[in-house]
Structures are given as C-alpha cells and as structure tokens.
Write the structure tokens for this entry.
Amino acid sequence: MEYFKKVFKESIVIIIISSLMGLLSGIVLSTNQRILYALPIILLILPALNSLVGDMSTVSVSRLTTHLYIGIIPPKLKPSRRIKDDFIGLFITILLSLVVLISFGFIIGITTGIQIINPFLITFIIIITVTLLFFILFGALFISSIIIFRRGGDPNNFLIPFITSLADFLTPLLLIGFIIIFI
Amino acid sequence: MERQDTKGKIIKETFPSEIVSIFGDILAGIILIFLILPFKSFLLLILIIPALLSLRGNLSGPFIARTAKDLIIGEFNKRTWLENTFSTYTLSVVTAFLIGVSSIFLNLFLIKTEILNFEILILIPIMSMLLALSLSMPISTFLNRFAFKHGFNPNNVVGPIMTAVDDFFTVICFYFTLILLGVP
C-alpha cells in the first residue's frame, strides 16, 4: 500500500484546499453576475476558457514531472532547451485553441441569439487574460515542480489539483478585472 | 518519448485534444443550463457545481498524470493501478463530504434557503463524484494505454480529452444524483 499512502498523503491537503477554492470561485462568479449577464458571450465560453487554462497547466506539470523523473532536465532552477521548447509548443497550442474557442463561441452566440457587444474588444480581453495567465502559471509551475521534486515529492500530486483550482479562480477574476478596466 | 518531443510534436498532439476539450466543455455548459437550471433548488446547486467540477479536475487530472508517468517509466501494473484507483476514490469521498458540509454552512449564512436538508447536501457531492469517477477512470486508463501503445505521449493527449469527457460525466452524474435523491 506504499503507492496508496504516498498519493493520499501528498494529495489530501491540497485537494481539500483547492476544492474549497472551487466553492470560493462559485461565490466570486455569483457576486459578479451583473457584469457577466451584461456580456452573455463571456458566460457561454467561460467553462471552456477555464478548461483551456487548466488543461495547458496540467500538460505543463505532467511533462515537467516526467522530464524530472527520467532525467531529461536536472532538478535545478535553470532554463533548458527542453523547457523552452515545451513553453513555445504549449503557447502556440493555447493561441490556436483560443482562435477555435472564440470562433465557436461567437458562432453559438449568433445562432442562439446571444447579443455580442464589442466583439473585437472582447476577443482582445480574452487573449490578454489567457496569455497573461499562461506566462505566470508556466513560470510558477516550473519553479514549484523543481522544489517539490528536490524534496522527494511527486509534483503531479500537489501541483495539478492546486493549479486546476487556481485557474478556475483566476480566469474569471482576471476576465472580470479586464472587463472593468477596458469596457 | 519525452526526450524526442519537438515543439511541433507538442502542438500536433495537444491541439486536437484541446479542440475536443473546447467542444465538450461548451456542450457541458449547454447541458448544465438545460438540465440543472429548471430545479427549484438551483440557487443552492450552483454553489456546489463549480466545486464539483474543480474536484473532478483535482482528482482525475492527477490520476491520469500518474498513470501516464507509470506507463512511461515502466512501473504500470495491476497493483499500482488498483492503488491509484483506490486512493482517488478515498480522496473523492473525503473531499466531497467536506464540500457538502461547506455548502451547508454557506447555505446557513449566505443563501438561507430551507429547500434541501443537510443529508441531501452531503450526499449530492459524494454520490455524483463516485458515479463520475467510476465512468472516468476506466476510460482514461484505456486512453492512456492506447496512446502509449501507439507511440503518442499520453501526457499530451489524454488530459485535455478527459477534461471534456469528465466535465460532461460530472454534469450528467450530478443530474442523475439529483433525480435519485428526489431533489426538488
């Protein structure tokens, strides 16, 4: 039962904290519902946007963890070719995914009669939110993975639950922040 | 496998999975609106849903990543998989219980509705998570093994696809739980 004990011990605290953060993000969204209802297209694409940021962060962590376990990157806070390639590859993927997400969201919005106010500004706000989040999260994940691995832990167990909830919480928060600033 | 991943390979493997994830999530959102919105207790249910979707990601994401890691480093076997599954179930019951308890307090101090009793608020997250994980874990294991067997990096492919599948299952299982418990 070593595997079970390791997973349970490393995961339980962070899963509880991040699930409670999920409750918090529900409260944050409901308290800002007036802004979201004024721009209904944001409401339509918000779950997919949360997932996109969460997915790219999860892929980053699982790749970093595997790199560390099989020794492709050393457990040192030093950028390597492998890390740069991962960053560029995932960043291009996130930009391509955003094109699909925004286009699909707008098509669904138009076909269901949802009013799309200021589509260019909304597109700009979505791109700036996701780009900013990806830059911050990738850097933070790289540093955290190395620190956790050096201490003998599995970064997957700690960082994926934390980053998923953080993305769920930060995406609507930044989006609402930028909407308040720009619109 | 990881050593050979170029930028192009990362994009080629991750982007199609992400497209599936985007379509799945928009679908999950639409289903959520049509199935959950008509419930009288919607005001209370909407508090639990983000936490459940978050918990789904917190449990399923690491489960998939651990399976992928075990496959890549050659440690995947029946024992590791069973312990991985058992630990995910245990974590889900403990955390779903806490979500239920937290929602009781949020209801008492924030929403202040008496439409659902305490037992139901605790049972909803536990039952829906157990149902969703029972569907999700065998599928993600199959996809991980399939991707690995066919030369894909499971880390790049399986996670984003399972996000969409899991969000969909979570919403559907949440709905079935509400029906089973007779939630108004």
Q: What stands out?
A: DSSP finds five helices and no strands in chain B. Chain B touches chain A through 67 residues (CB under 8 Å). The longest helix of chain B spans residues 78-111. The domain at 16-180 of chain B is CATH 1.10.357.20 (Tetracycline Repressor; domain 2).
